[in-house]
Amino acid sequence: MLDIIVPVIVVTVIGLIAGLGLALASKFMAVPTDQKQEQIRDCLPGANCGACGFSGCDGYAEAIAKGETEPDKCAPGGAETASKLAEILGVEIDTSPKIAFIGCAGNREVTAVKYGYEGMMSCAAANLVYGGPVACEYGCIGYGDCSKVCPFGAITMVEGKPVVCENECVGCGKCVSACPKGVISLIPKGAKERVACNNKKKGAPVVKNCKVSCIACGMCEKACEFGAIKVVDNLAAIDYDLCTACGKCKEACKRGAII
Amino acid sequence: MNKVTMITSILLAGILTNNMVLSKFLGICPFLGVSKKVKTAVSMSIAVTIVMVIATAVTWPLNEYVLREKYNYLQTVVFILVIAAIVQLIEIFLKKYIPPVYKALGIYLPLITTNCAVLGITLLNVQDGLNYGLSLINALAAGLGFMLAMVLFAGVRERLETANVPEFLKGLPITLIAAALVSLSFLGFAGIGG
Protein backbone atom coordinates (compact mmCIF):
# COMPACT_ATOMS: atom_id res chain seq x y z
CA MET A 1 0.00 0.00 0.00
CA LEU A 2 2.75 2.38 1.00
CA ASP A 3 4.45 1.67 -2.30
CA ILE A 4 1.54 3.31 -4.07
CA ILE A 5 0.72 6.12 -1.69
CA VAL A 6 4.23 7.50 -1.26
CA PRO A 7 4.98 8.00 -4.98
CA VAL A 8 1.54 9.55 -5.47
CA ILE A 9 2.23 11.97 -2.64
CA VAL A 10 5.73 12.70 -3.95
CA VAL A 11 4.50 13.55 -7.44
CA THR A 12 1.55 15.54 -6.09
CA VAL A 13 3.76 17.57 -3.79
CA ILE A 14 6.26 18.30 -6.55
CA GLY A 15 3.40 19.28 -8.84
CA LEU A 16 1.94 21.52 -6.17
CA ILE A 17 5.27 23.19 -5.50
CA ALA A 18 5.80 23.78 -9.21
CA GLY A 19 2.28 25.12 -9.62
CA LEU A 20 2.54 27.36 -6.60
CA GLY A 21 5.90 28.67 -7.75
CA LEU A 22 4.46 29.52 -11.13
CA ALA A 23 1.39 31.15 -9.63
CA LEU A 24 3.56 33.29 -7.36
CA ALA A 25 5.95 34.12 -10.18
CA SER A 26 3.16 35.19 -12.52
CA LYS A 27 1.76 37.36 -9.76
CA PHE A 28 4.97 39.05 -8.69
CA MET A 29 6.61 39.26 -12.08
CA ALA A 30 3.52 40.14 -14.06
CA VAL A 31 4.10 42.58 -16.89
CA PRO A 32 1.28 45.07 -17.29
CA THR A 33 0.00 44.89 -20.85
CA ASP A 34 -2.07 47.55 -22.52
CA GLN A 35 -5.66 46.47 -22.03
CA LYS A 36 -6.86 48.41 -25.03
CA GLN A 37 -4.29 46.67 -27.21
CA GLU A 38 -5.52 43.26 -26.07
CA GLN A 39 -9.11 44.24 -26.77
CA ILE A 40 -8.16 45.42 -30.24
CA ARG A 41 -6.19 42.25 -30.89
CA ASP A 42 -9.22 40.15 -29.97
CA CYS A 43 -11.32 41.92 -32.58
CA LEU A 44 -8.83 41.36 -35.39
CA PRO A 45 -9.30 38.20 -37.46
CA GLY A 46 -5.82 36.81 -36.83
CA ALA A 47 -5.07 35.96 -40.45
CA ASN A 48 -1.78 37.89 -40.18
CA CYS A 49 -2.11 38.76 -43.87
CA GLY A 50 -0.22 42.02 -43.55
CA ALA A 51 -2.69 43.94 -45.71
CA CYS A 52 -2.74 46.68 -43.07
CA GLY A 53 0.95 47.27 -43.66
CA PHE A 54 2.06 46.03 -40.24
CA SER A 55 3.92 42.87 -39.28
CA GLY A 56 0.67 41.08 -38.43
CA CYS A 57 -2.42 41.40 -36.32
CA ASP A 58 -0.34 41.91 -33.17
CA GLY A 59 1.69 44.65 -34.79
CA TYR A 60 -1.44 46.36 -36.08
CA ALA A 61 -3.15 46.14 -32.68
CA GLU A 62 -0.11 47.74 -31.05
CA ALA A 63 -0.06 50.54 -33.62
CA ILE A 64 -3.77 51.26 -33.19
CA ALA A 65 -3.47 51.23 -29.41
CA LYS A 66 -0.65 53.76 -29.63
CA GLY A 67 -2.73 55.88 -31.98
CA GLU A 68 -0.21 55.57 -34.80
CA THR A 69 -2.72 54.42 -37.38
CA GLU A 70 -6.40 54.28 -38.29
CA PRO A 71 -8.69 51.37 -37.33
CA ASP A 72 -9.97 50.84 -40.89
CA LYS A 73 -6.83 49.21 -42.30
CA CYS A 74 -7.89 45.62 -41.65
CA ALA A 75 -9.05 44.30 -45.02
CA PRO A 76 -10.04 40.72 -44.10
CA GLY A 77 -12.03 41.95 -41.11
CA GLY A 78 -13.81 44.44 -43.31
CA ALA A 79 -16.54 46.74 -42.07
CA GLU A 80 -17.45 44.57 -39.11
CA THR A 81 -13.97 44.66 -37.60
CA ALA A 82 -13.50 48.33 -38.40
CA SER A 83 -16.71 49.32 -36.63
CA LYS A 84 -15.82 47.15 -33.63
CA LEU A 85 -12.40 48.78 -33.44
CA ALA A 86 -13.95 52.21 -33.82
CA GLU A 87 -16.22 51.40 -30.92
CA ILE A 88 -13.27 50.47 -28.72
CA LEU A 89 -11.42 53.63 -29.68
CA GLY A 90 -14.54 55.78 -29.52
CA VAL A 91 -14.22 57.16 -33.04
CA GLU A 92 -16.35 57.01 -36.16
CA ILE A 93 -15.18 55.77 -39.52
CA ASP A 94 -16.58 55.13 -42.96
CA THR A 95 -16.88 51.45 -43.71
CA SER A 96 -18.05 49.95 -46.93
CA PRO A 97 -16.95 46.49 -48.00
CA LYS A 98 -14.74 46.33 -51.06
CA ILE A 99 -13.84 43.53 -53.43
CA ALA A 100 -11.16 43.03 -56.01
CA PHE A 101 -12.18 43.52 -59.61
CA ILE A 102 -10.15 42.38 -62.63
CA GLY A 103 -10.33 45.40 -64.88
CA CYS A 104 -9.61 43.57 -68.13
CA ALA A 105 -11.98 41.48 -70.18
CA GLY A 106 -9.34 40.44 -72.69
CA ASN A 107 -8.43 36.81 -73.23
CA ARG A 108 -6.55 34.66 -75.70
CA GLU A 109 -9.46 34.83 -78.15
CA VAL A 110 -10.22 38.53 -78.26
CA THR A 111 -6.79 39.93 -77.51
CA ALA A 112 -3.91 39.78 -79.97
CA VAL A 113 -0.63 38.16 -78.98
CA LYS A 114 2.67 39.96 -79.38
CA TYR A 115 5.06 36.99 -79.20
CA GLY A 116 5.32 33.45 -77.87
CA TYR A 117 6.49 33.53 -74.26
CA GLU A 118 8.22 30.46 -72.90
CA GLY A 119 9.59 31.48 -69.54
CA MET A 120 8.66 31.40 -65.89
CA MET A 121 4.89 31.23 -65.60
CA SER A 122 4.60 34.43 -63.66
CA CYS A 123 3.08 37.75 -64.70
CA ALA A 124 5.88 39.67 -63.01
CA ALA A 125 8.52 37.71 -64.98
CA ALA A 126 6.64 37.88 -68.29
CA ASN A 127 6.10 41.61 -67.81
CA LEU A 128 9.87 42.12 -67.82
CA VAL A 129 10.09 40.80 -71.40
CA TYR A 130 8.67 43.65 -73.50
CA GLY A 131 5.67 43.96 -71.22
CA GLY A 132 4.54 40.37 -71.62
CA PRO A 133 3.17 38.36 -74.55
CA VAL A 134 -0.20 40.12 -74.65
CA ALA A 135 -0.40 42.77 -77.37
CA CYS A 136 -2.22 45.25 -75.13
CA GLU A 137 0.39 46.77 -72.84
CA TYR A 138 -2.22 47.44 -70.14
CA GLY A 139 -3.98 44.08 -70.25
CA CYS A 140 -4.02 41.01 -68.06
CA ILE A 141 -1.10 38.68 -68.80
CA GLY A 142 -2.97 35.73 -67.33
CA TYR A 143 -0.25 33.78 -65.49
CA GLY A 144 -2.08 34.12 -62.20
CA ASP A 145 0.20 36.15 -59.90
CA CYS A 146 -2.98 37.50 -58.31
CA SER A 147 -4.34 34.00 -57.78
CA LYS A 148 -1.07 32.87 -56.17
CA VAL A 149 -0.85 35.82 -53.81
CA CYS A 150 -4.48 35.68 -52.61
CA PRO A 151 -4.42 34.51 -48.96
CA PHE A 152 -8.08 33.53 -49.11
CA GLY A 153 -8.12 31.49 -52.32
CA ALA A 154 -10.66 33.89 -53.78
CA ILE A 155 -9.07 34.15 -57.22
CA THR A 156 -9.10 31.14 -59.52
CA MET A 157 -7.65 30.90 -62.98
CA VAL A 158 -10.26 29.91 -65.59
CA GLU A 159 -8.87 29.39 -69.09
CA GLY A 160 -5.95 31.70 -68.46
CA LYS A 161 -8.00 34.45 -66.86
CA PRO A 162 -8.36 35.29 -63.17
CA VAL A 163 -11.89 35.09 -61.79
CA VAL A 164 -12.72 36.65 -58.42
CA CYS A 165 -15.10 34.74 -56.20
CA GLU A 166 -16.95 37.66 -54.66
CA ASN A 167 -18.08 35.73 -51.63
CA GLU A 168 -14.54 34.72 -50.74
CA CYS A 169 -12.88 38.05 -51.53
CA VAL A 170 -12.40 40.29 -48.52
CA GLY A 171 -10.83 43.17 -50.40
CA CYS A 172 -7.40 42.95 -48.76
CA GLY A 173 -5.78 44.36 -51.89
CA LYS A 174 -2.87 41.92 -52.06
CA CYS A 175 -3.70 41.09 -55.68
CA VAL A 176 -3.83 44.79 -56.50
CA SER A 177 -0.18 45.18 -55.61
CA ALA A 178 0.79 41.79 -57.08
CA CYS A 179 -0.48 42.62 -60.58
CA PRO A 180 2.39 44.11 -62.61
CA LYS A 181 -0.09 45.69 -65.00
CA GLY A 182 -2.26 47.35 -62.38
CA VAL A 183 -5.31 45.66 -63.85
CA ILE A 184 -6.95 44.92 -60.52
CA SER A 185 -8.69 47.54 -58.44
CA LEU A 186 -10.86 47.53 -55.34
CA ILE A 187 -14.46 48.46 -56.00
CA PRO A 188 -17.50 48.59 -53.70
CA LYS A 189 -18.99 45.17 -53.13
CA GLY A 190 -22.08 44.65 -55.26
CA ALA A 191 -21.19 47.36 -57.80
CA LYS A 192 -23.27 46.68 -60.91
CA GLU A 193 -21.45 48.66 -63.60
CA ARG A 194 -17.76 47.95 -64.06
CA VAL A 195 -15.25 49.08 -66.63
CA ALA A 196 -13.47 45.91 -67.68
CA CYS A 197 -10.60 47.60 -69.45
CA ASN A 198 -7.36 49.12 -68.32
CA ASN A 199 -6.13 50.49 -71.64
CA LYS A 200 -5.07 54.13 -71.48
CA LYS A 201 -4.34 54.63 -75.17
CA LYS A 202 -6.59 55.43 -78.10
CA GLY A 203 -6.56 55.00 -81.83
CA ALA A 204 -6.18 52.14 -84.26
CA PRO A 205 -3.76 49.91 -82.25
CA VAL A 206 -6.24 49.74 -79.39
CA VAL A 207 -8.95 48.40 -81.69
CA LYS A 208 -6.53 46.00 -83.35
CA ASN A 209 -5.03 44.67 -80.14
CA CYS A 210 -8.24 43.80 -78.35
CA LYS A 211 -11.83 43.35 -79.37
CA VAL A 212 -13.25 44.40 -76.01
CA SER A 213 -11.12 47.45 -75.30
CA CYS A 214 -12.27 50.89 -74.21
CA ILE A 215 -11.45 53.29 -77.03
CA ALA A 216 -12.36 56.44 -75.11
CA CYS A 217 -15.24 57.27 -77.48
CA GLY A 218 -17.19 58.89 -74.66
CA MET A 219 -20.54 57.25 -75.49
CA CYS A 220 -20.95 56.10 -71.90
CA GLU A 221 -20.25 59.58 -70.60
CA LYS A 222 -23.03 60.97 -72.82
CA ALA A 223 -25.44 58.19 -71.88
CA CYS A 224 -25.04 58.66 -68.12
CA GLU A 225 -27.67 60.96 -66.63
CA PHE A 226 -25.92 61.28 -63.31
CA GLY A 227 -22.45 62.23 -64.44
CA ALA A 228 -21.13 59.12 -62.76
CA ILE A 229 -18.98 57.89 -65.63
CA LYS A 230 -16.18 59.98 -67.08
CA VAL A 231 -13.46 59.29 -69.58
CA VAL A 232 -10.18 60.06 -67.85
CA ASP A 233 -6.82 59.34 -69.53
CA ASN A 234 -8.64 57.72 -72.47
CA LEU A 235 -10.36 55.28 -70.14
CA ALA A 236 -13.89 55.28 -68.77
CA ALA A 237 -13.99 55.54 -64.99
CA ILE A 238 -17.03 55.16 -62.75
CA ASP A 239 -17.62 57.26 -59.66
CA TYR A 240 -19.49 54.79 -57.47
CA ASP A 241 -20.77 57.53 -55.18
CA LEU A 242 -22.87 58.85 -58.06
CA CYS A 243 -23.62 55.62 -59.94
CA THR A 244 -27.21 54.39 -59.65
CA ALA A 245 -26.65 51.16 -61.55
CA CYS A 246 -29.17 52.14 -64.23
CA GLY A 247 -27.20 50.26 -66.87
CA LYS A 248 -27.34 52.96 -69.56
CA CYS A 249 -23.57 53.11 -69.94
CA LYS A 250 -23.48 49.38 -70.47
CA GLU A 251 -25.98 49.68 -73.31
CA ALA A 252 -24.16 52.63 -74.82
CA CYS A 253 -20.79 50.91 -74.96
CA LYS A 254 -20.40 49.44 -78.41
CA ARG A 255 -17.16 47.69 -77.45
CA GLY A 256 -18.50 45.67 -74.57
CA ALA A 257 -15.91 47.13 -72.24
CA ILE A 258 -18.47 47.90 -69.53
CA ILE A 259 -19.87 44.83 -67.85
CA MET B 1 41.91 10.82 -14.51
CA ASN B 2 42.39 14.30 -13.18
CA LYS B 3 39.66 16.89 -13.18
CA VAL B 4 40.73 18.82 -16.27
CA THR B 5 40.86 15.77 -18.54
CA MET B 6 37.60 14.56 -17.09
CA ILE B 7 35.85 17.84 -17.90
CA THR B 8 37.45 18.04 -21.33
CA SER B 9 36.37 14.54 -22.19
CA ILE B 10 32.80 15.25 -21.04
CA LEU B 11 32.68 18.41 -23.12
CA LEU B 12 34.14 16.65 -26.17
CA ALA B 13 31.77 13.72 -25.81
CA GLY B 14 28.74 15.98 -25.34
CA ILE B 15 29.52 18.20 -28.28
CA LEU B 16 30.92 15.71 -30.79
CA THR B 17 30.83 11.96 -30.05
CA ASN B 18 27.57 11.78 -28.17
CA ASN B 19 25.93 14.73 -29.86
CA MET B 20 22.36 14.96 -28.62
CA VAL B 21 20.81 15.39 -32.02
CA LEU B 22 23.13 13.65 -34.41
CA SER B 23 24.22 10.63 -32.37
CA LYS B 24 21.43 10.10 -29.85
CA PHE B 25 18.66 11.39 -32.12
CA LEU B 26 16.99 13.41 -29.38
CA GLY B 27 15.39 16.77 -30.08
CA ILE B 28 14.82 16.04 -33.75
CA CYS B 29 11.65 18.17 -33.77
CA PRO B 30 13.37 21.53 -33.22
CA PHE B 31 16.31 20.27 -35.28
CA LEU B 32 14.02 20.00 -38.31
CA GLY B 33 11.53 22.67 -37.35
CA VAL B 34 13.63 25.65 -36.34
CA SER B 35 16.71 25.18 -38.49
CA LYS B 36 15.60 27.16 -41.52
CA LYS B 37 17.74 30.16 -40.69
CA VAL B 38 21.04 30.34 -38.82
CA LYS B 39 19.79 33.22 -36.69
CA THR B 40 16.70 31.48 -35.33
CA ALA B 41 18.70 28.27 -34.91
CA VAL B 42 21.16 30.10 -32.66
CA SER B 43 18.35 31.68 -30.58
CA MET B 44 16.70 28.31 -30.12
CA SER B 45 19.98 26.63 -29.18
CA ILE B 46 20.82 29.26 -26.59
CA ALA B 47 17.39 28.82 -25.03
CA VAL B 48 17.78 25.03 -25.03
CA THR B 49 21.25 25.23 -23.48
CA ILE B 50 20.06 27.50 -20.67
CA VAL B 51 17.07 25.29 -19.96
CA MET B 52 19.21 22.13 -20.03
CA VAL B 53 21.62 23.47 -17.43
CA ILE B 54 18.89 24.84 -15.15
CA ALA B 55 16.81 21.69 -15.52
CA THR B 56 19.79 19.56 -14.55
CA ALA B 57 20.54 21.86 -11.64
CA VAL B 58 17.04 21.19 -10.29
CA THR B 59 16.41 17.57 -11.26
CA TRP B 60 19.72 16.15 -10.03
CA PRO B 61 19.18 17.05 -6.35
CA LEU B 62 15.53 16.09 -6.71
CA ASN B 63 16.56 12.62 -7.83
CA GLU B 64 19.32 12.34 -5.25
CA TYR B 65 17.37 13.46 -2.19
CA VAL B 66 13.70 12.85 -2.97
CA LEU B 67 13.39 9.95 -5.36
CA ARG B 68 16.54 8.02 -4.36
CA GLU B 69 16.86 4.35 -5.31
CA LYS B 70 13.37 3.36 -4.33
CA TYR B 71 11.32 5.61 -6.57
CA ASN B 72 13.67 5.64 -9.54
CA TYR B 73 10.82 4.76 -11.84
CA LEU B 74 9.21 8.13 -11.16
CA GLN B 75 12.12 9.94 -12.81
CA THR B 76 10.44 10.47 -16.18
CA VAL B 77 7.17 11.77 -14.77
CA VAL B 78 8.75 14.04 -12.18
CA PHE B 79 11.36 15.40 -14.57
CA ILE B 80 8.77 16.29 -17.20
CA LEU B 81 6.79 18.10 -14.52
CA VAL B 82 9.80 20.00 -13.28
CA ILE B 83 11.09 20.92 -16.75
CA ALA B 84 7.68 22.24 -17.81
CA ALA B 85 7.51 24.38 -14.68
CA ILE B 86 11.07 25.65 -15.13
CA VAL B 87 10.49 26.66 -18.73
CA GLN B 88 7.39 28.60 -17.72
CA LEU B 89 9.27 30.21 -14.89
CA ILE B 90 12.13 31.25 -17.16
CA GLU B 91 9.60 32.68 -19.58
CA ILE B 92 7.94 34.79 -16.90
CA PHE B 93 11.32 35.89 -15.59
CA LEU B 94 12.61 36.92 -19.02
CA LYS B 95 9.39 38.74 -19.87
CA LYS B 96 9.74 40.83 -16.74
CA TYR B 97 13.46 41.48 -16.49
CA ILE B 98 15.04 40.91 -19.91
CA PRO B 99 12.31 41.71 -22.50
CA PRO B 100 14.71 41.88 -25.48
CA VAL B 101 15.78 38.28 -24.86
CA TYR B 102 12.15 37.28 -24.38
CA LYS B 103 11.24 38.88 -27.70
CA ALA B 104 14.20 37.29 -29.48
CA LEU B 105 13.35 33.79 -28.25
CA GLY B 106 9.64 34.29 -28.87
CA ILE B 107 7.82 31.05 -29.55
CA TYR B 108 10.94 28.88 -29.08
CA LEU B 109 10.93 29.14 -25.33
CA PRO B 110 7.56 27.45 -24.69
CA LEU B 111 8.46 24.91 -27.39
CA ILE B 112 11.34 23.67 -25.25
CA THR B 113 8.83 22.29 -22.75
CA THR B 114 8.30 19.41 -25.13
CA ASN B 115 11.90 19.12 -26.27
CA CYS B 116 12.97 15.57 -25.52
CA ALA B 117 16.64 16.55 -25.60
CA VAL B 118 16.15 18.43 -22.32
CA LEU B 119 14.39 15.51 -20.68
CA GLY B 120 16.99 13.20 -22.23
CA ILE B 121 19.99 15.00 -20.76
CA THR B 122 18.50 15.15 -17.26
CA LEU B 123 17.71 11.43 -17.33
CA LEU B 124 21.08 10.50 -18.82
CA ASN B 125 22.93 12.51 -16.17
CA VAL B 126 21.18 10.59 -13.43
CA GLN B 127 21.54 7.21 -15.12
CA ASP B 128 25.26 7.69 -15.80
CA GLY B 129 25.78 8.39 -12.10
CA LEU B 130 27.61 11.66 -12.67
CA ASN B 131 28.06 13.90 -9.65
CA TYR B 132 26.40 17.32 -9.44
CA GLY B 133 29.21 19.39 -10.96
CA LEU B 134 29.87 16.96 -13.79
CA SER B 135 26.14 16.71 -14.50
CA LEU B 136 26.00 20.47 -15.02
CA ILE B 137 29.02 20.37 -17.30
CA ASN B 138 27.47 17.50 -19.21
CA ALA B 139 24.25 19.46 -19.63
CA LEU B 140 26.22 22.46 -20.89
CA ALA B 141 28.12 20.22 -23.30
CA ALA B 142 24.86 18.72 -24.59
CA GLY B 143 23.47 22.21 -25.12
CA LEU B 144 26.56 23.29 -27.01
CA GLY B 145 26.39 20.10 -29.07
CA PHE B 146 22.76 20.89 -29.85
CA MET B 147 23.83 24.37 -30.92
CA LEU B 148 26.59 22.99 -33.14
CA ALA B 149 24.18 20.60 -34.83
CA MET B 150 21.53 23.29 -35.28
CA VAL B 151 23.91 25.87 -36.71
CA LEU B 152 25.59 23.38 -39.04
CA PHE B 153 22.27 22.12 -40.27
CA ALA B 154 20.78 25.60 -40.63
CA GLY B 155 23.76 26.40 -42.86
CA VAL B 156 23.07 23.29 -44.91
CA ARG B 157 19.39 24.20 -45.22
CA GLU B 158 20.11 27.75 -46.28
CA ARG B 159 22.13 26.26 -49.11
CA LEU B 160 19.31 23.83 -49.91
CA GLU B 161 16.94 26.76 -50.42
CA THR B 162 18.73 27.74 -53.60
CA ALA B 163 19.75 24.25 -54.70
CA ASN B 164 18.10 22.64 -57.70
CA VAL B 165 16.27 19.83 -55.92
CA PRO B 166 14.16 17.35 -57.92
CA GLU B 167 10.44 18.02 -57.54
CA PHE B 168 9.66 14.85 -55.57
CA LEU B 169 12.38 15.53 -53.01
CA LYS B 170 11.48 19.16 -52.32
CA GLY B 171 10.72 20.17 -48.76
CA LEU B 172 10.87 17.61 -45.98
CA PRO B 173 12.33 14.66 -47.96
CA ILE B 174 15.54 16.47 -48.91
CA THR B 175 15.74 17.93 -45.39
CA LEU B 176 15.66 14.42 -43.91
CA ILE B 177 18.29 13.20 -46.37
CA ALA B 178 20.51 16.15 -45.53
CA ALA B 179 19.98 15.48 -41.81
CA ALA B 180 21.01 11.87 -42.33
CA LEU B 181 24.20 12.94 -44.15
CA VAL B 182 25.13 15.43 -41.42
CA SER B 183 24.46 12.75 -38.81
CA LEU B 184 26.59 10.27 -40.76
CA SER B 185 29.48 12.71 -40.81
CA PHE B 186 29.32 12.93 -37.02
CA LEU B 187 30.03 9.19 -36.85
CA GLY B 188 33.55 10.18 -37.81
CA PHE B 189 34.03 11.61 -34.32
CA ALA B 190 33.43 8.22 -32.67
CA GLY B 191 36.49 7.27 -30.69
CA ILE B 192 37.60 10.79 -29.78
CA GLY B 193 38.28 11.05 -26.06
CA GLY B 194 38.17 7.27 -25.56
Structure explained in plain terms:
The complex is a heterodimer of chains A (259) and B (194). Helices cover 34% and strands 10% of the residues of chain A. With 259 residues, chain A is of the alpha+beta class. Chain A folds into three domains: 35-89, Electron transport complex subunit B, putative Fe-S cluster (3-methyladenine DNA Glycosylase II, Chain A, domain 3); 97-190, Alpha-Beta Plaits, CATH 3.30.70; 192-259, Alpha-Beta Plaits (2-Layer Sandwich), CATH 3.30.70.20. In chain A, the strands form three sheets. Chain A has a two-stranded antiparallel sheet. Chain A has a two-stranded antiparallel sheet with strand order 2-3. Chain A has a two-stranded antiparallel sheet with strand order 5-6. In chain A, a hairpin with a 2-residue loop joins β5 (229-232) and β6. In chain A, α2 (35-43) packs across α3 and α2 (35-43) packs antiparallel against α4. The termini of chain A are far apart. In chain B, α3 (38-67) packs across α4 (75-97) and α3 (38-67) packs antiparallel against α8 (132-162). Chain B has helices at residues 3-17, 28-33, 38-67, 75-97, 99-105, 108-111, 116-127, 132-162, 172-186. Chain B has one domain (7-189). The two termini of chain B are 12 Å apart. Helix content of chain B is 74%, strand content 0%. Chain B has 194 residues and is mainly α. The interface between A and B is medium-sized, with 15 and 19 residues.
